[in-house]
Amino acid sequence: MLKKFTKKPKQELENILNDLTCANESLKTFSPELVVQFNSLYDDFISEVGKEIPKEAKRKLSPQSEDSKFWEALINEIGKVRPPGENYTDNVCQTLKHELEKEKTLNTFLEIQAGKYWKKLVIKLLSFFGEK
User: Fold this and answer.
1) Which of 3, 60, 101, 104 could form a disulfide with 108 if both were Cys (CB 3.0 to 4.6 A apart)?
2) CA geometry: angle 37, 39, 41, nearest 5 deg
3) CA distances from 116 to 46, 79, 120 (A)
4) Domain containing 114: what range?
5) Are 113 and 49 in contact (CB under 8 A)?
6) Residue 49 lies in a domain
């Protein structure tokens, strides 16, 4: 999913790197290595952001204490008599969804983490040109 959302910025950066080669003949030998480094940094970006999502989900869903209202609500769903059309799975899924969206949604979390790690990627890329 993250690759889908970063496809356009990634392509723009690749275009900039290619434009640099066209603009400066001396970069022609350096450019292929820079593209390889960029692709490696991009793969690291995807991996690092991907590691943050399960951590955040676990933080939100792991029992924090024995009297956790979240886990108590899930336990109370077991064996409950339900009206027709209502089922255990739907109720548990709703409870999980509510818990995941209580503070900030995972989408918002993903957006924040992607922005943070993308900034690091660009800074590392600029460091090849002596920028800090």
Assistant:
1) 104
2) 70
3) 12, 44, 7
4) 2-127
5) yes
6) yes
Q: What is the pLDDT of residues 36-62, one digit of tens each?
A: 888 899 999 999 988 988 888 777 777
Q: What are phi and psi of 65, to 5 degrees?
A: -160, 170
CB 17 within 8 A of CB 111: no
pLDDT for 18-27, tens place per residue? Answer: 777 776 777 7
Q: 63 φ, ψ to 5°?
A: -60, 125
Q: Cα separation of 89 and 18, whole Å?
A: 51
* Angle between helical axes of 106-127 and 31-61 (0-180°, round to 10): 150
Does some domain include residue 132? no
pLDDT tens by residue, 57-100: 777 777 766 777 778 888 888 888 888 888 888 888 888 888 77
Tell me how far apart the alpha carbons of residues 61 and 82 are, in angstroms, rounded to a whole number.
Answer: 25
- As a whole number of Å, the CA-based R_g of the chain is 23
The first and second tokens of residue 79, run together, are 């064996």
**Residue 33, domain member (yes or no):** yes
